[in-house]
């Protein structure tokens, strides 16, 4: 008996891009757990999602540049494809109500507003992956680390051509260069903490393999002996296109 081919779904009529935050205890949500929570939220909010074709259709949701589990973020991004045209502000409100506190929707835009001219002469919307080229992070406060010690460690780290670190991956222990991805690293005061509490501010280029803020901390410790204390908070403040001339991280939603 022949098997019937799967039903083909209609193509999406609208794509929305969403910036959201991971805050407080919800920063320990893994990417897999977040994706499940988000799918439940779009279902509860009755958002008219477009679905993939095939024997197991699933809502069209594209994730990009997810922060490591345990780190907080003010700049996580995803894109959803819809079967009906809706107002981005309405989706913002619906998702804000459906998601738990700590997974907070910050901005929703119509991806079509990002359409830009291409060398071919036609306009197109850059993919999220193409736009998310670098991130700006804060690390800290650093327990028991003085500003002078932090400055000395940062200066030595930046003077190195390479700083090798190790990280356990799915394929086993891997060694890679943490220095090459660091575009900027500095010391700053930590608002809301003691006057002598310091944090690090870090700008990372997105590379393969990805270098994470904890890799940079590991490199600092290995190179200089800097001890940041138990589990300093890692917070992504920005994620977006990189201005190669200035080293600034831009807004991926900028028109």
What report would you give on this structure?
By secondary structure, the chain is an alpha+beta fold. Helices cover 21% and strands 30% of the residues. The chain is built from five helices and twelve strands. Strands 1, 2, 3, 4, 7, 10, 11 and 12 form an eight-stranded mixed sheet that branches. A hairpin with a 2-residue loop joins strand 8 (164-169) and strand 9. Helix 4 crosses helix 5 (213-224). The radius of gyration is 21 Å and the shape is elongated. The mean pLDDT is 91.
What is this structure, in a nutshell?
Helix content is 21%, strand content 30%. With 255 residues, it is an alpha+beta fold. A hairpin with a 5-residue loop joins strand 5 and strand 6.
Distance N to C terminus: 54 Å
- Global structural class: alpha+beta
* Uncertain segments: none
Radius of gyration: 21 Å
Largest sheet: 8 strands, mixed
> What is the beta-strand fraction?
25-35%
Binned, the helix content reads 10-25%
Return the average pLDDT rounded to an integer.
91
Number of strands: 12
- Count every helix, treating DSSP H or I runs of 4 or more residues as helices: 5
Strand/helix succession = EHEEHEEEHEHEEEEHE
Shape: elongated
Topology:
Layout: E1 14-22, H1 31-44, E2 61-64, E3 72-82, H2 88-98, E4 103-110, E5 116-117, E6 123-124, H3 128-131, E7 134-139, H4 147-159, E8 164-169, E9 172-177, E10 182-189, E11 198-205, H5 213-224, E12 234-240
Parallel strand pairs: 3-12
Antiparallel strand pairs: 1-3, 1-4, 2-3, 5-6, 7-11, 7-12, 8-9, 10-11
